Amino acid sequence: MPDTEKSADAEEYGGIREMGSSRLAGARGNIHCLTVVGEIEGHRLLPPETKSTKYEHVMPQLAAIEEAPDIDGLLILLNTAGGDIEAGLGIAELIAGMSKPTVSLVLGGGHSIGVPLAVAAKRSVIAPTAAMTIHPVRLTGVVIGAPQTYDYFAKIQDRIVEFVTRSSRMTRERFMEMMQRTGELAADIGTALYGREAVEAGLIDEVGGLKDALARLHAQIAARY
């Protein structure tokens, strides 16, 4: 194998290992595949044994993808338990603000702050067995019991609600009802949606798998070019 090919293969493997990303080159266009897995890590480092997606890795990648002339579209593979709200919303806003074709595919789970990430793409797909959990904002650590704290919680939650309802077919009233529902989750308030339920609720566009997500992405690329 020529040295140039070895170098390209090494670079590709390094991207998958370090950033959870890879490039898919084909006759119908060049696609960048980005994975969002585990917990979304924000300003605080998670324990080394925790699988995480680091926002300082993903954000510059998204900017580079938007500017790269040799990338035609972005496929986002999601299997996340949620995580840092600010980091998750920041990544979601970047995806939503891209001009290039984007498709998200929820595999396994797209919970908590993973919900805005799933709906940020121009088209969203969910696997039949995948799950998504909608629940109120929760913070860990020391919390000051003052009215200002609860106002802050409400403002953070409103930002999430606004983004999700702006980026999907779900109404604000429906999303809030699911967020505040009691009796469904064993140890929490909220709602769990599985596969087709997420589509019927207006949160995700369609049920499907990898071939469906790629077909939607290639259709966007063809329409653009």
Structure description:
By secondary structure, this protein is α/β, with parallel strands linked by helices. The protein has one domain (3-224): 2-enoyl-CoA Hydratase, Chain A, domain 1 (Alpha-Beta Complex). It is 43% helix and 25% strand. The protein is built from eight helices and nine strands. Strands 1, 2, 3, 4, 5, 6 and 9 form a seven-stranded mixed beta sheet that branches. A two-stranded antiparallel sheet has the order 7-8. A hairpin with a 2-residue loop joins strand 1 and strand 2. The two termini are 34 Å apart.
Task: Describe the secondary-structure layout.
Blueprint: H1 3-19, E1 21-26, E2 29-41, E3 52-54, H2 55-67, E4 73-83, H3 85-96, E5 102-110, H4 114-119, E6 123-126, E7 131-134, H5 147-167, H6 172-179, E8 191-194, H7 196-200, E9 206-207, H8 210-224
Helix pairs in contact: 2-3, 3-5
Number of structural domains: 1
**CATH topology heading:** 2-enoyl-CoA Hydratase, Chain A, domain 1
Average pLDDT score: 85
User: Which CATH architecture?
Assistant: Alpha-Beta Complex
* Parts with pLDDT < 50 across at least 5 consecutive residues: 4-17
Number of helices: 8
Shape: globular
Largest sheet: 7 strands, mixed
Rg (CA only): 18 Å
N-to-C order of helices and strands = HEEEHEHEHEEHHEHEH
Structural class: alpha/beta
CATH homologous superfamily (4th level) name: 2-enoyl-CoA Hydratase, Chain A, domain 1
Q: Helical content, roughly? A: 40-55%
What fraction of the residues are assigned to beta strands by DSSP? 15-25%
